[in-house]
Amino acid sequence: MNVWDQLQRPLRDLRISVTDRCNFRCHYCMPADIFGPDYVFLKKNMLLSFEEITRLAQLFQDTSGIKKIRITGGEPLMRRDLPSLIEMLASIDDIEDIAMTTNGSLLPKYAQRLKAAGLNRVTISLDTLDDERFKKINGRDVSVDTVLKGVDAAREAGLGIKMNMVVQKGVNDQDIVPMAKYFREQGIIIRFIEYMDVGNSNGWKMDDVFSKSAIIERINKEMPLDAIKPNYKGEVATRYRYKGSDDEIGIISSVTDAFCSSCNRARLSAEGKLFTCLFSSKGHDLRGPMRNGATDDEMKEIIKGIWTNRKDRYSEERTAHTKRKSKVEMSHIGG
User: Fold this and answer.
1) In this predicted structure, what is the pLDDT of residue 95?
2) 170 close to 251: Cβ distance less than 8 angstroms
3) Taking a C-beta distance cutoff of 8 angstroms, is the pair 205, 166 a contact?
């Protein structure tokens, strides 16, 4: 059961944003000067209900045979009673993996419930081990220890863990090796992410990108690396293993080494819009027809029609599109 887009890419991976709210104000995602006290977030009636999310996930599974779901935000744990949604999604036949991307701050409260509900893995964002730099990055004076307690809670709950670090030149590139060493010692895979031009509010410039090749060079000087094969076709991160060990890292490099040709991910926003690219200008409304009484077969045809007409390859064409001023914000559709 496959649905192919215009570039012969299948739909295999569904990422579902459950909220546009977050308790951090990281400057590359939700800068506080834009997402301040007066910022208007989505109202409750605009958000997809858990029942609507579950119905759409089932329809995506029926349409394309997706096996993986990732819950995103904003910060997904800002959505009330999220473990209930995980339990509902886990009941869908043939969904083999449910993961969540989080800043980790609320995991001590929720990790056990999430695991019991059926969550398999978490990806936790942390951009430095230096407290002063981290507080400046997150914009909320949150300490590194707060996130590390979330890591501990996830581990104690039995959740799989990966770490994400967004690397920005002149901001935290000095932390690449310390982060690599620390999480290698912890037995946790870390993925280094090139600073991307998602949305329009973060003031992105190419000069701020610390490239994949530079990240590899920096780590390789102290801990030599070997490239290894992807776990599966369409894997986001390029994998590397420390020589003489099974310990590995990943690098996500949509800026300098685009992977559009194998992208098989669809993104569902918190208010029910389907985005076929992280850098999309606009989404396709699924909430409207669903709330207006569309049948399952009609919804499946809508989903199929959107994907089969997809031809996005923004990262491969970045130079032509960088100045576009209508890209959806990262906090709206997740990573």
Assistant:
1) 96
2) no
3) no
Q: Report the DSSP pairing between strands 189-194 and 248-252.
A: parallel
CB burial class (10 A; 0-12, 13-18, 19+) of residue 234? middle
Helices 50-64 and 82-90 pack at an angle, to 10 degrees, of: 30
Distance CA 189, CA 195 (A): 19
Residue type, 7: L
Residue 44: DSSP 8-state: G
* Burial (CB count <10 Å: 0-12, 13-18, 19+), residue 8: exposed
Looking at the predicted structure, is the pLDDT value of residue 320 above 80?
no
Measured CA to CA, the distance from residue 22 to residue 220 in angstroms comes to 35
* CA-wise closest residue to 167 among 139, 144, 190, 143: 190
Q: What is the DSSP letter of 257?
A: S
In this structure, of 112-121, 245-254, 312-321, the range with the lowest mean pLDDT score is 312-321
Please give the Cα distance from 254 to 194 (Å, whole number).
Answer: 7
Is residue 25 helix, strand or coil? Answer: coil
Which one is predicted more confidently, 33 or 76? 76
Q: What is the pLDDT of residue 319?
A: 55
Burial annotation 295-314 (CB, 10 A radius, 16+ → b, else e)? eeeebbebbeebbeebebbb
pLDDT-derived band at 312 (thresholds 50, 70, 90) equals confident
The CA distance from 102 to 83, in Å, is 14
- Asked if 102 and 75 touch (Cβ cutoff 8 Å), the reply is yes
pTM: 0.93
* Confidence class for position 281, pLDDT limits 50, 70, 90: confident
The Cα–Cα gap between 23 and 176 comes to: 25
Quick check: 247 and 267 in contact, CB under 8 A? no
Domain 13-333: give its CATH code: 3.20.20.70
